[in-house]
Write a structure and sequence with these properties.
Layout (H helix, E strand, L loop, with lengths): L5 H6 L5 H29 L12 E6 L7 H14 L4 E5 L11 H9 L4 E4 L3 H10 L5 E5 L11 E7 L27 E5 L6 H12 L8 E11 L5 E2 L6 E6 L4 H11 L3 E7 L8 H13 L4 E5 H4 L6 E2 L2 E14 L1 H15 L9
Helix pairs in contact: 3-4
């Protein structure tokens, strides 16, 4: 018997007396969490807690929910934009759930997507910002998952909302996946709808209407994730249509987004799909069980995400090849607006009297 996951409880998929009691307990905990979040945000709004300003422009790429909105490919796209315009960027991230003595999965993926770009990890992003500017002469800082990290002031706040799961069951943590109330969208300079091609036009229109409750003039930028091929741990590449029946698995914030991306990519047949918790570290037992499971499903290959593959240094599980689906972020709506926002920061880089840390 498989015990229901946190998502099963908060989504309502888990039924019965135990699930009802669990949701009640989670709702109670959410009230305490909500009070803490609102108090902290109010303290920043009133200047009781002071934000520190960097000596270069700062872009935050964040979200309202816990994981799963596609921040990593969006950060890579923004880094590519800056480097293509002759600007030296640096990425700052907290480094959540790292491997023992190593970087976490998101840094490993970004190192592949943005080779040669400085990426500093640490809970104190005010300090890592200082290091990036003073020691490495970064010209712009990109905060990966930075919306809630208000100690470091930002010049551009980009908030990502997943079009297929925008509000994380509609409740604050732990009853839902919202890190802070939807009203916090008022702090955003721009909203980016990710996976905008994976929801219906009616659902998208309703979502945009909900966003405008807090940002009346906001016209969300729409991003899609285009599959580009397959890669294995040795760096070998293959075409998506080279696979037969696949067994897919992942340990990411929004597993359904990966499932839909596989289908949209034209993978011949997803024979079975298995999920693990976000940022899951795969044990030898996990990998052995995946190999057996895939064979039982009569799969001819296993497919996962790049975020998962960087933690599995193997080209095969059992007798089956292991591949990751590679994707890139593209902007279906609002690309010119995003470019204008980024260009404004480039203009500031050469302006005199840039503020120092305060």
């Amino acid at each position: 018997m498989t015990f229901p996951s946190h998502r099963d409880f908060i989504s309502g998929r888990a039924r019965g007396p135990v699930a009802i009691l669990a949701r009640g307990g989670l709702s109670l905990a959410s009230h305490f969490y909500s009070a803490a979040v609102r108090t902290r945000n109010r303290a920043f709004d009133l200047g009781v807690i002071r934000a520190h300003h960097a000596s270069v422009p700062v872009v935050s790429v964040g979200n309202l929910t816990a994981g799963g909105t596609g921040k990593t490919p969006l950060v890579a796209a923004i880094i590519d934009w800056f480097t293509s315009h002759g600007v030296r960027p640096a990425i700052l991230s907290r480094g959540y759930h790292p491997h023992t003595g190593a970087a976490n999965d998101e840094k490993l993926v970004l190192d592949q997507l943005c080779p040669g770009v400085l990426h500093l990890q640490g809970a104190d992003r005010v300090e890592t910002a200082r290091v990036a500017c003073d020691r490495h002469v970064a010209q712009v800082l990109v905060l990966d998952d930075g919306f809630q990290h208000r100690r470091l002031a930002r010049d551009l706040d980009l908030v990502l909302i997943d079009a297929i799961d925008p509000w994380g069951a509609g409740h604050l943590l732990p009853r839902g996946l919202l890190r802070e109330p939807r009203s916090s969208l008022r702090r955003a300079d721009a909203v980016i709808l990710t996976r905008a091609d994976q929801c219906s036009s009616g659902d998208k229109a309703r979502l945009i209407s909900e966003i405008r409750e807090f940002c009346p003039d906001e016209v969300p930028i729409e991003a899609v994730f285009r599959p580009t091929g397959l890669v294995n741990s040795d760096g070998a590449r293959a075409a998506i249509d080279s696979l037969g029946a696949v067994a897919a698995f992942c340990g990411i914030g929004n597993p359904d987004g990966f499932r839909q991306t596989l289908i949209a990519a034209g993978v011949y047949r997803v024979a079975a799909f298995r999920t693990f918790p976000d940022h899951h570290h795969y044990s030898q037992t996990d990998l052995a069980e995946l190999a057996i499971w895939a064979c039982e499903q009569r799969a001819t290959a296993l497919v996962t995400t790049q975020k998962d593959l960087v933690k599995i240094p193997r080209c095969q599980l059992g007798d089956l090849p292991l591949w990751a689906l590679t994707i890139r972020a593209e902007f279906a709506v609002g690309q010119d607006r995003l470019a204008m926002l980024l260009q404004d920061l480039v203009t500031r880089i050469s302006a005199p009297n840039l503020s120092k840390f305060q």
